Amino acid sequence: MRILIVEDEPRLRAQLVQAIAAAGHVAEEAADGEQAHWLGEVEDFDAVVLDLGLPRLDGLSVLRRWRAAGRGMPVLILTARGTWQEKVAGIDAGADDYLAKPFHMEELLARLRALLRRDSQHASAQWQCGPLWLDTRSARALVAGQPLQLTSHEFMLLAQLMQRQGEVLTRTELSEHLYPGGSERDSNTIEVFIARLRRKLPAGCIETVRGLGYRLVAPGQSGGAGA
């Protein structure tokens, strides 16, 4: 998952980036409202952690502009002003959840997981595709009850495929969910990670759709022509 973190306080922003990356997501960051607004307009994110007290453009204005432009990604707002008026203003602007500072990082991660499940229409943190089972909360994956030893990039790639199992994902889409925006996105490396995953998963789980990309299916349930 790609998560945008918008926070002007450098230390807290670094802590959020570290915690969210450790949870198996790609964490991108913005330090002011104008940068956040631009990133949210031109990039696709699975969720946003948005501070309200931002320089250059406040968080509520950023959120209102995103929603007016039709950007529907889940947004968790943060504020040092934990009043009910701030909460109402944030929800009215289009926020999906609210957390007042100071907060425990574990609570923020739990709320973020809930938003991601809600948006992807998964009822729990545990996803399944045939004998393959993945827990986004503990960052664990099993095949027929046996744990898989995955690198962080392999886990993120598998999670993206499982979230949209049965759908064809292009190499570009997959690479965007593995690498922060500031790093070079080489879609050719996706082939390497796909090959590694195939060696660890049951045969037939990951199909290649020629000229398009890849899709995850349960073994024995081919997605159709082109695989």
Automatic annotation (TrEMBL):
SUPFAM superfamilies assigned: CheY-like (SSF52172)
Residues recorded with modification 4-aspartylphosphate: 51
Claim: Transcription is one of the keywords in the record: yes
Name used for this protein in its record: DNA-binding response regulator
Keywords annotated in UniProt: DNA-binding, Phosphoprotein, Transcription, Transcription regulation, Two-component regulatory system
Source organism of this protein record: Melaminivora suipulveris
Residue intervals of the Response regulatory domain: 2-116
DNA-binding residues (ranges): 124-218
